[in-house]
């Protein structure tokens, strides 16, 4: 087995027994989980805009009239009274936002394939973006290939066999006990159309349409079934849409598929590959691997790692899988990747399978820039834009502030009012501010001033809210109130435990980063002198990070005890990652305190959810501790990864995949502190390797190889002209003026060639 292939392929020797073993395909919008059964295939389907219910104004009109009293209670330490008032006056009406729904299943039942099979394999080829199932029954080899095409906006399933006339099956849609919401109709002799309603006031109408093109044999529709008999091969085309984007989803799906049916499968595949590979093949990673391990099925490799064995090739595969998942769940025009990307089989999914914006949605996008998938970041920017209008209403209605705000969740309708009455999380108005740092990061990586010009207005509006929201405390500092440090509780000296607070450390770190970004943005764009001045003045009045009695970064303004010292959220290290205010060089004391904080969290049981573990990898990488970063990559695989390599919160939650991928990249390249560093946190175990196509802030893309932890050659591609400085083990520091469009190759600090 080709070693390289094993870093780009998940494969299994048996069908998936349950959803968490099935393999995901997607084009950002249209997704399927492929089970790979022999006598019956289940493709569990999703369309990203199928959500329960419509948009609503949920802002609580009693929030603003009670805000002054609430602040007073918090500042006087009357926590129970404050919590009582907050839980009455602040929650959204109703309490919860909308939730994401499955589209249904496409079931394929094969005729004459009940006998035991041989040579079974089920694989997800990350280099091709296709899932393939193969097996032999008797002397016939059957092949099933599934892809979700972005250019053709369709799910395509190709069924074939190596003997003529051997493909016979019946197909139908299924939505389990939610079938009362939909109906399936015949579409000629070779197609089915399922239409229905999401449920809930103002919800969406949806459609899934299926059409078969068979070579040889016959196709007919009987009842709700499509029946294929004795075909040589069949291509199934599936389109889906909702009224979120299309006025008439059924007419849209039918005409869309009619336009595709006369295209040979080979052409569809070619277009899919050209599109998919243009993103996927930009970046690759090789770590020391073993050919023997590389040949094992993925679940067996994972089991070995769970037993404590090493498998660096599996780590490279996990990294590549994270990039695959982002391409498959977030493409221009789609919604952003939600808590489950786009893959959800539940009508009442965990945390509604929506967008949790006090860490999870942001984590989904940590690999986007660094791992060279900047386009996949765009759906998040679209959602942020859509949040501005509802966010303005929330800012005014709840807090009497200008600008726009959001709390710890949002949904398909860009809802910004609080979610739940869950005191450790719900009443935290920092969601929009944190999200806006993503547009700033996009600028820092690509340095596209046209983009910044637009993005600046969004960042400014989030900053405007905070300027108004901040209040002066007795020391004359500007603080947030009410707020929480997601989602931890503190203990007062009286022994009383609380959550609502004045001034969580994370708030000041986010505000510092956002105000800093706006100031820098205004300078780059040469505008907004007065506003910039206001931000500069406010910045000086924000509380500074403090080191507490354990040598830790204080999570709150006071050095409170934490109720749960091993809490999964490590919000007060925001400035270490994804922020960059704490660095080992510029703020060594804070970096040392961050180290102590992490050790404390970990020794008290921290990192127990997948995403928390993934965040910890990024923290250790930023602290340049390759060994501890590596230990936590291993822990992510050992404790929080399922057979199909999906992250396990538990249950499945995709953020850990993306955070883990970002963390592995952050071990290889960092560019947050002015200078670019190659191999800043490399563990001894990765003594040699190669990485291609990681991006650094400033408009640079790096490729390099290393052996015995020293880099031999570095290639830098530049998209923007400007100074470039990097440090790499085995190199003297390199500093040069890069020209846009050029590619530079370095050996030591000598440029050995540069070409257009
Ligand atoms: C946050 C986390 C939970 C979970 C949820 C979706 O509230 O604290 O662990 O990830 O989001």
Task: Give an overview of the whole structure.
The structure is a single chain. This protein has 756 residues and is α+β, with helices and mostly antiparallel strands. The chain folds into 3 domains: 3-51 and 101-284, Beta-galactosidase, Chain A, domain 5 (Distorted Sandwich), CATH 2.70.98; 89-98 and 314-665, Glycosyltransferase (Alpha/alpha barrel), CATH 1.50.10; 684-755, Immunoglobulin-like (Sandwich), CATH 2.60.40.1180. The chain is 32% helix and 25% strand. A hairpin with a 6-residue loop joins strand 30 and strand 31 (734-738). Alpha-L-fucopyranose binds next to loops.
Number of strands: 33
What's the total helix number?
18
Q: Please, what is the average pLDDT?
A: 96
Distance between the termini: 37 Å
Helix content: 25-40%
For this structure, the CATH topology of the largest domain is Glycosyltransferase
Q: Quickly count the domains.
A: 3
What value does the Rg take, in angstroms? 27 Å
User: What compounds are bound to the protein?
Assistant: alpha-L-fucopyranose
Which strands sit side by side, in order, in the main sheet? 1-6-7-8-9-16-13-12-11
Overall CATH class of the largest domain: Mainly Alpha
Strand content: 15-25%
């Amino acid at each position: 087995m080709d070693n390289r292939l094993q870093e780009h392929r998940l494969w299994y020797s048996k069908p998936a027994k349950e959803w968490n073993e099935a393999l995901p395909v997607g084009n950002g919008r249209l997704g399927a989980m492929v089970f790979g059964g022999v006598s019956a295939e289940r493709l569990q389907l999703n369309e990203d805009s199928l959500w329960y219910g419509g948009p609503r104004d949920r802002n609580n009109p009693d929030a603003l009239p009670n805000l002054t009293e609430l602040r007073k209670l918090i500042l006087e330490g009357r926590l129970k009274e404050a919590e009582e008032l907050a839980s009455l006056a602040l929650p959204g009406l109703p309490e919860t936002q909308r939730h994401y729904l499955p589209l249904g299943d496409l079931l394929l039942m094969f005729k004459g394939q009940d006998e035991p099979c041989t040579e079974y394999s089920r694989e997800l080829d990350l280099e091709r973006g296709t899932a393939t199932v193969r097996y032999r029954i008797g002397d016939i080899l059957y092949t099933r290939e599934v892809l979700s095409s972005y250019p053709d906006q369709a799910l395509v399933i190709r069924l074939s066999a190596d003997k003529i006339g051997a493909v016979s099956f019946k197909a139908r849609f299924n939505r389990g006990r939610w079938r009362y919401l939909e109906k399936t109709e015949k579409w000629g002799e070779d197609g089915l159309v399922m239409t229905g309603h999401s449920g809930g006031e103002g919800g969406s109408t949806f459609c899934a349409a299926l059409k078969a093109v068979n070579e040889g044999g016959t196709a007919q529709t009987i009842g709700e079934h499509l029946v294929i008999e004795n075909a040589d091969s069949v291509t199934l085309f599936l389109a889906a849409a909702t009224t979120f984007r299309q006025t008439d989803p059924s007419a849209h799906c039918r005409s869309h598929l009619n336009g595709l049916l006369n295209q040979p499968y080979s052409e569809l595949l070619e277009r899919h590959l050209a599109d998919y590979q243009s993103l996927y093949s930009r970046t690759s990673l090789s770590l020391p691997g073993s050919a023997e391990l590389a040949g094992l099925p993925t679940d067996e490799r994972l089991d070995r790692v769970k037993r404590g064995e090493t498998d660096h090739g599996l780590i490279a595969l996990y990294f590549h899988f994270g990039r695959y998942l982002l391409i498959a769940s977030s493409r221009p025009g789609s919604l952003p990747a939600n808590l489950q990307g786009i893959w959800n089989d539940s009508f009442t999914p965990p945390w509604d399978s929506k967008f949790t914006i006090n860490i999870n949605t942001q984590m989904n996008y940590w690999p986007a820039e660094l791992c060279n998938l900047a386009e996949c970041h765009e759906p998040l920017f679209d959602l942020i834009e859509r949040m501005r209008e509802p966010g303005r209403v929330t800012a005014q209605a709840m807090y009497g502030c200008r600008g726009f705000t959001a709390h710890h969740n949002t949904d398909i309708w860009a809802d910004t009012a609080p979610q739940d009455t869950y005191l450790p999380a719900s009443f935290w108005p920092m969601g929009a501010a944190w999200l806006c740092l993503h547009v700033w990061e996009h600028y820092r990586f690509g340095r596209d001033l046209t983009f910044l010009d637009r993005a600046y207005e969004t960042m400014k509006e989030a900053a405007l809210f905070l300027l108004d929201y901040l209040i002066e405390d007795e020391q004359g500092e500007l603080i947030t109130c009410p707020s929480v440090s997601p989602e931890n509780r503190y203990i007062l000296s009286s022994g009383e435990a609380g959550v609502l607070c004045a001034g969580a450390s994370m708030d000041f770190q986010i505000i510092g980063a956002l105000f800093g970004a706006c100031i820098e943005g205004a300078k780059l764009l040469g505008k907004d002198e007065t506003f910039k001045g206001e931000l500069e003045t406010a910045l000086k009045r924000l509380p500074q990070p403090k080191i507490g009695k354990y040598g830790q970064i204080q999570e709150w303004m006071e050095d409170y005890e934490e109720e749960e010292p091993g809490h999964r959220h490590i919000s007060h290290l925001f400035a270490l990652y994804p922020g960059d205010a704490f660095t080992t060089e510029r703020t060594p004391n804070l970096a040392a305190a961050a180290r102590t904080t992490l050790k404390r969290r970990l020794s008290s049981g921290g990192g127990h959810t997948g995403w928390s573990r993934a965040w910890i990898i990024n923290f250790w990488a930023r602290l340049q501790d390759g060994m501890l970063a590596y230990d936590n990559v291993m822990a992510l695989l050992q404790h929080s990864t399922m057979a199909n390599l999906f992250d396990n919160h538990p249950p499945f939650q995709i953020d850990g995949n993306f955070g883990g991928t970002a963390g592995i990249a952050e071990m290889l390249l960092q560019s947050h502190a002015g200078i670019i560093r190659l191999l800043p946190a490399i563990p001894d175990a990765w003594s040699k390797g190669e990485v291609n196509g990681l991006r650094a802030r400033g408009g640079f893309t790096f490729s390099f190889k290393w052996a015995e932890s020293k880099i031999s050659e570095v290639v830098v591609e530049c998209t923007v002209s400007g100074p470039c400085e990097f440090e790499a083990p085995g190199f003297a520091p390199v500093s040069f003026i890069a020209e846009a469009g050029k590619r530079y190759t370095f050996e030591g600090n000598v440029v050995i060639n540069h070409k257009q």
